[in-house]
Amino acid sequence: QVQLVESGGGLVQAGGSLRLSCVASGKFFSINAMGWYRQAPGKQRELVANIISGGSTNYADSVKGRFTISRDNAKNTVSLQMNSLKPEDTAVYYCSALISISGLNMFWGQGTQVTVSS
Fold this sequence. Notes:
- Helix content is 0%, strand content 60%.
- By secondary structure, the chain is an all-beta fold.
- Strands 2, 4, 5, 6, 9, 10 and 11 form a 7-stranded mixed sheet that branches. The protein has a 4-stranded antiparallel sheet with strand order 1-3-8-7, with no helix packed on it.
């Protein structure tokens, strides 16, 4: 019904940069919010950043000033520019989309691995 496909993960050295992208497709009228979560081994999934349709953004304290989320509503895409990466940013990153289909539903991408070496 709704598919989210991420791209852009990989291996980078500490201090480096990566850009994640996600595109949503399927049968829906509009997307209320899009965002990125991450899950490190042995830890719970946590919000990294999200952005609502009006453009307001929200960031985890741990990434403020280093990560920037952006969105193209016309193309149903969301991107995460990650700068000054740290080893503790290593995790699987998941794209999310909050969409109104018979009520509000959260959809997830398959995840993309980000590994930051020290």
